[in-house]
Amino acid sequence: MKKSVVTFREAKGHTKLVMLTAYDYSVARIMDANVDALLVGDSLGMVMLGYPDTLSVTMDDMVRHCAAVSRGAQEALVVCDMPYMSCHISPAETVRNAGRLIIEGRAQAVKLEGGADFAADIRALVRASIPVMGHLGLTPQSVNAFGGFRMQGKTKEAAQRLLEDARAVEAAGAFALTLECVPAPLAERITRELAIPVIGIGAGAACDGQVLVWQDMAGLGERQPPRFVKKFGDVGQALRSAVETYAREVRKGDFPSGEYCYSFPDGFDDVVRQLK
Ligand code: KIV
Predict the structure, then answer these.
(1) Among 81, 214, 215, residue to substitute to test ligand 1 (most atoms within 8 Å of Cβ)
(2) Which of 6, 109, 181, 249 is most buried as measured by Cβ atoms within 10 A of its Cβ?
(3) Across-strand partners of 209?
(4) pTM of the entire structure?
(5) Residue 113 CA, closest ligand 1 atom number
(6) Which whole-number Å values give the CA distances from 258 to 119, 244, 262, in the listed order?
């Protein structure tokens, strides 16, 4: 059965929610049955497109990748990130852009980075019947303002601001909140206080669920994943080894052997020989 924001709402306090990023159809098909939600993250800028950060990801990028994931997700809730500058101009523009992710990308919800400053945008989206997942803590679109990808909420003042932002996101109508790279005790406090589920990434075990970038958790890619990532597999090594074997067999002439060739009825060799 297709999961929805209701699945998220009902899980709070009962069941841990499982979310992974996905950016294309084939991977979405593999993950679909084992996760509650697939996040089409703007991290695709880094892991799929090779940018150093998420800032150059466009609405067209997100629409295309989201549509591919949606076609592969028969059960999982599909949440799509609003890329940089798609929700920073005005609530009207935020709704117009999120509308594209719903209509063209077939997302069921959008995620946007930011707290109290984005409450008006969240309210406008909710008014347009677009479910919103908030995102606080290390919000990668603020990499230049933060001076790098750094843990957030480390001082008393910063932790207080984060807690207030979390309250503002919930009050504006978000159905869930992603908390990235914050101290575990702060994430625990926010998770306890909010009535909506909190999905952690580098935010400790007390959150209502977890999300990771799939290339990081499955061991694909060259970038060194952040410290909070556990490597659950080595897809990179499996792929490297498959490519090495393929290249060796092609060079030696071992591939394709007979079983990988189309055979034709007896006499076809003669037909080919007689071709002018
Ligand atoms: O873009 C992304 O993948 C994300 C997750 C890291 C939460 O926002």
Answers:
(1) 81
(2) 109
(3) 17, 199
(4) 0.96
(5) 8
(6) 64, 21, 8
